[in-house]
Automatic annotation (TrEMBL):
This is histidine kinase. The chain crosses the membrane at residues 81-101. GO terms for cellular component: membrane. The keyword Metal-binding does not apply. The keyword Repeat does not apply. InterPro entries: HATPase_C_sf, HATPase_dom, Sensor_HK_TwoCompSys, Sig_transdc_His_kin_sub3_dim/P. It is an enzyme of class 2 (transferase). Its EC number is 2.7.13.3. It catalyses: ATP + protein L-histidine = ADP + protein N-phospho-L-histidine. Keywords: ATP-binding, Kinase, Membrane, Nucleotide-binding, Phosphoprotein, Transferase, Transmembrane, Transmembrane helix, Two-component regulatory system. It comes from Streptomyces bingchenggensis (strain BCW-1). GO terms for molecular function: ATP binding; phosphorelay sensor kinase activity; protein dimerization activity.
Length: 393
């Protein structure tokens, strides 16, 4: 198959094929294969043979004129009292196929009109009569249709590939944006801890009575290392902040945690106009601020999706402090979005990014996320986050 494709792309193939068919057609005109004598009008016969085979050499540079010339010569040959030579039929089929492949459908239909006219009313003296005209029409239609079908298939494959590449690019940009937003939020949390470490080391060095010189030197080194780490982290993650749209320092707030979850539920209840209930199960334990931020953002995004896809529907938010994990479940009884493992690649550019953001956050926390339709309808978002060691008070 690959050898045939390479042969079809050979630059000299049309010229070689035209030369071979011309030679075969001229040989048949001079030395007939049947018992009939040679044609009486040899110049006319030779001209029709050349007209129905030689234009194949121009299939790549002048396709439409070549196909028109071969069509005219092939249809005029029966009117001269003889059937077209055997070599004319492959040349005609090849040019019609290429016409259907490369030209618009309207052009292919126009080229089929002469064959329809010939099949409907051949001249009484035409060789082959109506059966030959019908057979010629069927062959021409098959060649044109085959080329058009391959053209349509290639265009459909190209569109599908372009849509797939566009969807992949959109999802990549969305995932990159979510990761940047998560990194910005976690940067605030980590920066707070590093700053606290630096302050505590400096305070211990200055306020501890009787501290040995070596201990003071090590505490000083700890403080310097913490400040250097904070500077390097800010430098590396500074590219993730959009200075043009960043909030003013006066409007920036600390990153939220589970302490603000009740306020979030109250705001969702007032905004959605439906019942939003918060249920806490298990023994409440202190959690790492980064894990609290992840859980808060999951609930926030799930409530936003519920308000968007199931406005006014009751929503339950459940926090379950299990052994070794925090389970966050948000369920509603509305229609909800379709439960997919990833956003639909054929959806609009902003569709599915809420679930994508939740998946990115859960993956960063080392947990798992499950989204599905509920057994009694609605939509369920369930995340399981492994518990980390709580931050020191």
């Amino acid at each position: 198959m690959s050898a045939l494709r390479r042969l079809g792309r050979a630059p000299d193939l049309p010229l070689v094929a035209a030369a071979a068919l011309c030679a075969a057609g001229l040989l048949q005109a001079v030395v007939p294969l049947d018992d009939r004598p040679p044609a009486a009008d040899i110049p006319l016969t030779l001209a029709l043979v050349l007209g129905s085979t030689a234009p194949l050499a121009f299939a790549r540079s002048q396709l439409l004129p070549a196909a028109t010339a071969v069509t005219a010569a092939t249809l005029l040959t029966p009117l001269s009292g003889r059937l077209p030579c055997a070599a004319a039929l492959p040349a005609l089929a090849a040019l019609l196929y290429l016409t259907g492949l490369r030209c618009p459908p309207r052009t292919a239909l126009l080229l089929a009109v002469p064959f329809v006219a010939y099949a409907l009313g051949p001249a009484p003296t035409a060789a082959g009569g109506k059966p030959f005209g019908v057979a010629l029409l069927a062959g021409a239609a098959a060649a044109l249709a085959a080329g058009a079908a391959r053209r349509a298939g290639g265009e459909a494959a190209a569109r599908s590939a372009a849509e797939g590449a566009y969807a992949h690019t959109v999802l990549e940009h969305a995932a990159r944006g979510e990761r940047a937003r998560i990194a910005r939020e976690l940067h605030d949390v980590v920066a707070h801890h590093i700053s606290t470490l630096s302050v505590q080391a400096e305070t211990a060095r200055l306020t501890t009575p009787g501290l040995p010189p070596l201990g003071a030197e090590r505490l000083l080194a700890i403080g310097d290392t913490a400040r250097q780490a904070l500077t390097e982290m800010r430098r590396l993650l500074g590219v993730l902040r959009d200075d043009a749209s960043a909030e003013a320092p006066a409007t920036r707030r600390p990153q939220p945690g589970l302490d603000q979850l009740l306020t979030l539920v109250d705001e969702a209840r007032d905004t959605a106009g439906g019942g939003v209930r918060l249920v806490v199960r298990g023994r409440i334990t202190p959690l790492d601020p980064g894990l609290q931020l992840t859980a808060y953002r999951i609930v926030q995004e799930a409530l936003t999706n519920a308000r968007r896809h199931a406005p006014g529907a009751p929503v339950d938010v459940e926090l379950h402090y299990a052994e070794g994990a925090l389970r966050v479940t948000v369920r509603d009884i509305g229609a909800g979005p379709a439960p997919t493992a990833a956003p639909d690649p054929h959806a609009a550019p902003d569709a599915g990014h809420g679930l994508l953001g939740m998946r990115e956050r859960v993956a960063m926390a080392g947990g798992t996320l499950r989204t599905e339709h509920g057994p009694a309808g609605g939509f369920v978002v369930a995340a399981e986050l492994p518990l980390r060691e709580a931050a020191a008070a």
